[in-house]
């Protein structure tokens, strides 16, 4: 299940640019409840404090001019973005990227997120690259942190922090979660 959660978090990091209205601390929520806006604000603060670049992608809820979703996967992704706060970088290799990633994870922990399990690291193959990740929890939210480096011809870094509201994500069926994680869209 953790593998599917990682895949869904990675997919959400890409689709949050579709824009969304948000679950989080909406109608009926206590004013001090931790919601999507608070999660997005913490992500922005941590990213800036770690010296990471601003994301060139829109944050969840920002207008993007994207046309209406055409496929079931796109419709489900749009709904899932309502449950999300995120930051993503994909570009040239960053100076000190690994240290900045670790600094960001430590800053999330200092902000009250608790690590759910160990930080993981996986070599993608000889001279191909490395991917790292961690899962953190806070007040009904799960934050997936990922950092991948490539040492091939397209030498680049991909880093993302995607927070999802647990109760909001529970509304999705297993089939919808499969769609989000890149599984088959068959009925």
- Helices and strands, in order, run as HHHEHEEEEEHH
* Helix content, binned percent: 25-40%
Percent of residues in beta strands:
15-25%
- Overall shape: globular
Biggest sheet record: 6 strands, antiparallel
Radius of gyration: 16 Å
Mean pLDDT: 80
The total beta strand count reads 6
Distance between the termini: 21 Å
Number of helices: 6
Segments where pLDDT lies below 50 for 5+ residues? 9-22, 24-31
By secondary-structure content and strand pairing, the structural class works out as alpha+beta
Describe the protein's architecture and organization.
α2 (36-49) crosses α4. The longest helix has 14 residues, at 2-15. The model is unreliable at 9-22 and 24-31 (pLDDT under 50). Strands 1, 2, 3, 4, 5 and 6 form a six-stranded antiparallel β-sheet that branches. The protein is of the alpha+beta class and 187 residues long. The protein has six helices and six strands. The protein is globular.
């Amino acid at each position: 299940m953790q593998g599917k959660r990682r895949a869904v978090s990675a997919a959400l990091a890409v689709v949050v640019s579709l824009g969304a209205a948000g679950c989080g601390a909406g109608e009926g929520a206590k004013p001090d409840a931790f919601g999507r806006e608070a999660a997005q604000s913490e992500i922005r603060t941590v990213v800036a404090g770690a010296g990471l670049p601003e994301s060139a992608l829109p944050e969840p809820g920002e207008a993007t001019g994207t046309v209406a979703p055409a496929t079931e996967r796109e419709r489900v992704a749009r709904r899932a973005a309502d449950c999300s706060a995120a930051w993503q970088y994909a570009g040239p290799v960053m100076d000190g990227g690994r240290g900045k990633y670790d600094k960001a994870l430590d800053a999330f922990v200092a902000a009250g997120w608790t690590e759910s399990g160990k930080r993981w690291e996986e070599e993608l193959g000889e001279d191909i690259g490395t991917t790292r990740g961690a899962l953190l929890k806070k007040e009904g939210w799960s934050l997936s942190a990922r950092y991948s480096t490539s040492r091939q011809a397209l030498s680049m870094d991909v880093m993302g922090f995607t927070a999802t509201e647990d109760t909001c994500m529970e509304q999705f069926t297993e089939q919808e979660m499969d769609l989000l994680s890149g599984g088959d869209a068959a009925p």
